[in-house]
């Protein structure tokens, strides 16, 4: 299906295993794709045939995280400098927290052919606990079923976006495909879900942030 080579980066980390269906979809749909595990001591090489890099995992505005280390910390796989060297003149798709800020920092150093990035996406309780340390009212009353709903929508949105992207390899198509799923989920939360109003408001806010923080070129 695909005329050019894609590199898919996906770490071994239980907290991102819920994203595995996206990985499976990519490996099934994109014929010329290479999967890379970002482990300590392994180095990613980008050859001239590679045009698209997809990263799925944890990240910040300054680093993309790899596998868990023995001490439980996340391996700092790519910082801005190394990413600038690897990603120059490529298309990149980063499904990670604060990835749009990471991309902005990379673009200060090099040009990118195209990109898709995201804002903050709280998908585990450690992340939520960190944000609650900053604001004790953050997602107050949020429970596992609410977090799972958000995570499931994230996966569905990304797969729907990738389905449209694979037709003509256009990030706008992917962006619109993700928006379709997110908009439908916001309506479902408001109309169909039997949760407290405060929980509905939290989920709508999270989905709205997911939609508005997503940027592409």
From TrEMBL:
* Top-level taxon of origin: Bacteria
Its name, as the record gives it, is CHAT domain-containing protein
Q: Which organism encodes this protein?
A: Mucilaginibacter gilvus
């Amino acid at each position: 299906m695909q005329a050019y080579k894609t590199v898919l980066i996906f770490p071994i980390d239980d907290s991102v295993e819920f994203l595995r269906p996206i990985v499976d979809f990519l490996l099934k749909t994109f014929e010329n794709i290479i999967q890379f595990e970002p482990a300590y001591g392994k180095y990613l090489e980008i050859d001239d045939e590679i045009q698209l890099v997809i990263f799925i995992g944890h990240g910040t505005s300054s680093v993309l995280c790899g596998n868990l280390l023995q001490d439980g910390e996340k391996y700092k796989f790519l910082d801005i400098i190394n990413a600038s060297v690897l990603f120059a003149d490529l298309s990149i798709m980063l499904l990670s927290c604060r990835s749009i800020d990471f991309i902005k920092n990379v673009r200060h150093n090099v040009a990118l052919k195209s990109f898709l990035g995201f804002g903050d996406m709280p998908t585990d309780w450690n992340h939520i606990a960190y944000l609650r340390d900053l604001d004790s009212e953050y997602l107050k009353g949020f429970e596992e079923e609410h977090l799972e709903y958000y995570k499931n929508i994230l996966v569905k949105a990304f797969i729907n976006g990738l389905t449209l992207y694979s037709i003509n390899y256009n990030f706008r198509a992917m962006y619109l495909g993700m928006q379709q799923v997110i908009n439908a989920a916001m309506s479902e939360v408001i109309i169909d879900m039997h949760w407290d109003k405060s929980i509905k408001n939290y989920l709508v806010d999270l989905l709205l942030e997911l939609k508005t923080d997503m940027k592409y070129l």
